[in-house]
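Reading a protein record of the kind used here takes only a little practice. Think of the row as the fold of the chain written in a discrete alphabet. With that in mind, consider the following protein and its fold in token form:
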Amino acid sequence: MIETVVTFLNSLLWGKLLVYALVGVGIYFTISLLFIQFTHLKHSAKVMISSRQADDAGLSSFQVFCTSLAARVGAGNMAGVAVAIGAAGPGAVFWMWLIAMLGMATAMVESTLAQVYKVKDSEGQYRGGPAYYMEKGLGQRWMGVLFSIFLIISFGLVFNAVQANTIAGAVNKVFDISPNVVGILLVVFSALVISGGLRKVAKVSEYVVPVMAIVYIGMALVIVLMNLERLPQVFSLVIKSAFGWQEAAAGGVAYTIAQAMQSGIARGLFSNEAGMGSAANVAASAAPNPPHPASQGFVQMAGVFVDTLVICTATAAIILLSDDWGSSSDGIAMTISALEFHVGGWGGWFVAGAILLFCFTSIIANYSYAETNVVFLLGNRKKVILLFRLVVLAMVMFGSLAKISLVWDLADLSMGFMALVNIIALVLLSGVAFKVIADYRDQLSAGVTPTFDKSRFPELNQQIDNEVWNPATAEVAEPRS
């Protein structure tokens, strides 16, 4: 019964509504921002790499990038890409690319808004995200409450179950270790990190994420070089499958295209999170450098690019360059099988290790997103946070043992509702975002370091926290290393 209802709602959300909404707002933001994801991609990388400073209230831009990438790079990049290819063929990869390119503009808008409307909590730490800009920017706390509930369910609970499920499946397949044992170990190590809150999550992510990403991309690059002569054939296969050209002779082209679009966009969003509103929660926690809200938009644009156009593509290349990419409906089994095809038996060990790191960092980063929304709903109360941490750890254990198809379906459903609420808010607040981003670009073009001056935005005077953005200089606090 539950599976039937979940399947029906997913088909409604992902079959039509969210596909059109995500592509629509992506095109709208891309055009309105004058294709910023292409014209300022180099600048976004520069902001991300050069911003290693934080203050007493916030994280550094680099820590925010690593934390958001920790959440993005997980089951969606490895198992999710394989699931999409297995369900809809290689064409799903093309639609992942497309939604990522459009999603970069969406990430720019939502993370800029998260910075504009962020606040300081009772402990002097920056908090923000969609729930906060819905309350402060739109004056609709009920909308923020709804978003927070969906995010807590999806990221704090369901998505962490998905990540734990993926880890348990990979470790069990490669090392034959019981999911019960894996679940207990995950709970212990997750508890050690999330007990330190957002700062400890960011610190762990800052060191682990760059290493794991570089190693995984390096492995994919080696495999591509080993199969360089087949690369044009694989690229052609992706394009033909995306538009149904392969199936034209057999009929059913429209269905094939729709299936590839639905699967690619769903898995693409699950992976890069653009438009979902999730990464905006940690983007708000940054002490931006340069001191302007739009700087975090550039950082999150870089995150979407690295996640989907680099890491997801790496997984797709590993799978499609093997000979049996359509042989399994189990995403992680397909990825392991593909890597073993290329490098032999130790490939399974490599995938298991990569999955362990990717999905574990996703668990702790997902928790940090959910914590911010628990604070939005109930305040920064220690007993509430402790209880929530225990519930999150219980879901990690549950995910290690759960039926994977239902877990994935619940993840899609909760993510869909969350994205829908956020998309509405983004469209309603897009004028504010466009003006703030234009202010940044004007200063950048004039050759000065962009600095946010609240006096240039009188319409925001009653909405922006004075403790966060000082009217004259907008400097947050003296930076520290």
In short: The two ends are 54 Å apart (CA to CA).
